[in-house]
């Protein structure tokens, strides 16, 4: 009798345990979803015209104006430019005033040219190339420094030589002489670190 009662108790306990396990909600795994990037074709405008007519690049253009760099941009061909938005400069004008002060004009040219890469990749190309690559892609800028591109949390990101990270917006614009990318941070070169080997990327 006791033996039968013991067996029944074990059976009931096992049944309750099985039912309890089935009722538990399975845990949800965090999945990193890649951002979808697109490129608008605007061959009627040059890179400089796209910058000039955008409502979010005013701060960058103020720096371009401070060193009278418009002609250089106008004469560029097959160029990729990574442009910080006005918000990337912060709520105050401190960064703009600092970079455009007379004693910093030489440094400002370096910083501006660090945002330009000779090549014709757009955001979709970069995403595809990074998906096929085993690691970051490093591109040489006009000022001689390098930018490292990689996918981070499903988004295209740029690591500059001062270890700052900028994210590329979901859309880029392909103009008549280059591609304009929008980024959320001002890129900073390292003058002592501009001789590293890099990979020049382009797609015809």
TrEMBL record:
UniProt-listed Gene3D superfamilies: FAS1 domain
Domain called FAS1: residue spans: 44-187
Cited Pfam families: Fasciclin
Signal peptide positions (record): none
PANTHER family: FI19380P1, PERIOSTIN-RELATED
Protein name in the entry: FAS1 domain-containing protein
Upper lineage: Bacteria, Pseudomonadati, Bacteroidota, Flavobacteriia, Flavobacteriales
